[in-house]
Amino acid sequence: MSMFDILDISATGMHAQTVRLNTTASNLANADSVSSNAEETYRAKKPVFQTILESQAETGIDPRGGVRIKEIVESQAPLKMEYNPNHPMANKDGYIFRPNVNVVEEMADMLSASRSYQTNIEVMNTSKQLMLRTIQLGK
């Protein structure tokens, strides 16, 4: 494995964490939305990561390791039904539907993704410094 492969692997990690941060931001932005039926109610989304193995790199598309986004799935947690007959979005039974977004969980997810992104930046910076020092050995 070359030093450039390390940079590629860190780049895949940074991309994955960016998608994770974007889905978390989307979940938080829709946490207070209201709907009159369950079908139209926003559902929390989560990215599913997949490892890129070295043997899969033979195609030339992926680096020799790292992570990629396999898919983005909707949470299957139940929606929050609230009895509020005076709300303009209430259905005929007086219920409104709120998303299944857990704000505390989303904030923890955001912190974790941010730290993982920072760690990948540190890996890239350390690799860059090691390459520069290797070049200076010949001087």
From TrEMBL:
Q: Fetch the Pfam families from UniProt.
A: Flg_bb_rod, Flg_bbr_C
What processes in GO biological process is this protein linked to?
A: bacterial-type flagellum-dependent swarming motility
Which part of the chain is the Flagellar basal-body/hook protein C-terminal domain? 94-137
> Domain of life, per the record?
Bacteria
The record's section on InterPro entries has: Flag_bb_rod_N, Flagellar_basal_body_rod_CS, Flg_bb/hook_C_dom, FlgC
Keyword annotations of the record: Bacterial flagellum, Cell projection, Cilium, Flagellum
Q: Please provide one cellular component term from the Gene Ontology annotations of this protein.
A: bacterial-type flagellum basal body, rod
Report the subcellular localization.
Answer: Bacterial flagellum basal body
What region holds the Flagellar basal body rod protein N-terminal domain?
7-32
Looking up PANTHER family in the UniProt record yields: FLAGELLAR BASAL-BODY ROD PROTEIN FLGC, FLAGELLAR PROTEIN
The subunit structure is:
The basal body constitutes a major portion of the flagellar organelle and consists of four rings (L,P,S, and M) mounted on a central rod. The rod consists of about 26 subunits of FlgG in the distal portion, and FlgB, FlgC and FlgF are thought to build up the proximal portion of the rod with about 6 subunits each.
Query: Which family does this protein fall into?
Result: Belongs to the flagella basal body rod proteins family.
Fetch the NCBIfam families from UniProt.
Answer: FlgC
Indicate what this protein is called per its UniProt record.
Flagellar basal-body rod protein FlgC
Q: What organism is recorded for this protein?
A: Sulfurivirga caldicuralii
